[in-house]
Write a structure and sequence with these properties.
Blueprint (H helix, E strand, L loop, with lengths): L1 E3 L4 E17 L2 E2 L17 E3 L15 E3 H5 L9 E2 L2 E20 L2 E14 L29 E2 L6 E10 L13 H7 L2 E10 L23 E2 L23 E2 L20 E13 L5 E9 L31 E9 L1
């Protein structure tokens, strides 16, 4: 829905959604031990004579002995079997968005938009290029229960606000004020101020533990939830040395699967950025112009912290040790067009 408002503003409210089936997943190891064998426990790690020894076995499956688990795999002659581009993925996305726009008039243009959304899927091995904040396990915890991977998407961002603003100062030739004085026009005329801002929620966090289940062919293992909230209180700066509460988790034993979801409903640090600039345009002739630019990138000098360490059991679990964006950057420049 759109609504024309006074002063040249247009307001838009909308909703959208999508449900996708048979999405491609790559790298899924289908050579994982069937959970019905887990009751054998540590016996699965014992060495037993290898019937493939001397009969074509190569690498680790060509040795005289192998683990009992290896011989119980669906394809015991291989250590792993990656199913490339399996069409087993499902996703769900829905969003509401609000937009306010003022098209350029009287020296002013403005645009602001806000989106609330939710994205869920059961995809693994999904990463978005160019973002070090996004990570996903390289395969399912349990290849026999792909629906157990259902949860927030790697790229789920529930809140995002963006805005842009351009304002030409009303001074100098062709403007309401000081338009007849040539000297003042060179000093105060031709100036414009610009702002670009963006703020968004952090991305969901995925907590894993040291993999006790590599012997059964699992690519990773999640811990168990204790019922305590994993989220700590305070600002991001206050939580740099304890962004996650370790009491919320316990180590899942070997030959079991942790019950923590693929992604927590706890997010990494949010981001906030404002870029400011001022331009001054000089007109020498009809064809020759020059523009002076002064720009401040990350003008508020607000750090965008990286996600915390999410390997439960690590000495750095829950610690944030770096930031992603650059500190405030000031740059000056001149452009001549002819």
């Amino acid at each position: 829905m759109q609504r024309q408002a006074p002063a040249g503003f247009v307001f838009t409210v909308g909703a959208l959604g999508s449900h996708s089936l048979h999405l491609l997943q790559s790298g899924q190891n289908i050579n994982q031990l069937t959970p019905s064998y887990f009751s054998q426990g540590s016996a699965l790690t014992e060495s037993v004579p290898n019937p493939l020894y001397g009969n074509g076995g190569v690498g680790s499956v060509g040795r005289a002995t192998v683990t009992r688990a290896q011989l119980l795999l669906p394809f015991p002659q291989y250590t792993s079997v990656a199913l490339a581009d399996a069409d087993t993925g499902t996703s769900l996305y829905y969003a509401f968005y609000f937009r306010a726009e003022r098209r350029f008039a009287n020296g002013l243009s403005a645009l602001a938009s806000y989106t609330w959304s939710r994205s869920e899927d059961d995809l693994t091995a999904v990463n978005l290029a160019g973002s070090s904040q996004i990570s996903s396990p390289s395969g399912p915890q349990n290849a026999y229960n792909l629906k157990g991977e259902w949860g927030l998407s790697t790229q789920d961002v529930p809140n995002r606000f963006t805005t842009t603003l351009t304002y030409e100062l009303p001074f100098g030739k062709g403007k309401p004020f000081l338009k007849t004085n040539g000297v003042l026009d060179w000093i105060v005329g031709g100036w414009s101020a610009n702002a670009i801002g963006a703020a968004q929620s952090g991305l969901p966090l995925s907590v894993i533990q040291p993999n006790n289940n590599s012997v059964i062919g699992a690519t990773y293992q999640r811990p168990n939830a204790t019922g305590v909230s994993p989220e700590t209180s305070g600002s991001t700066v206050d939580r740099l040395n304890g962004y996650l509460n370790p009491a919320a988790f316990s180590q899942a034993a070997p030959f079991t699967f942790g019950n923590v979801s693929r992604f927590l409903n706890v997010r990494g640090p949010s981001s906030f950025n404002v870029d400011l600039s001022v331009f001054k345009t000089f007109k020498f002739t009809e064809r020759v112009r020059a523009q002076f630019r002064a720009e401040a990138l990350n003008a508020t000098n607000t750090p965008y912290f990286a996600n915390p360490n999410t390997t439960f059991g690590s000495s750095q679990f829950g610690l944030i040790t770096s930031q992603i964006n650059n500190p405030r950057l000031l740059q000056l420049g001149t452009r001549i067009t002819f």
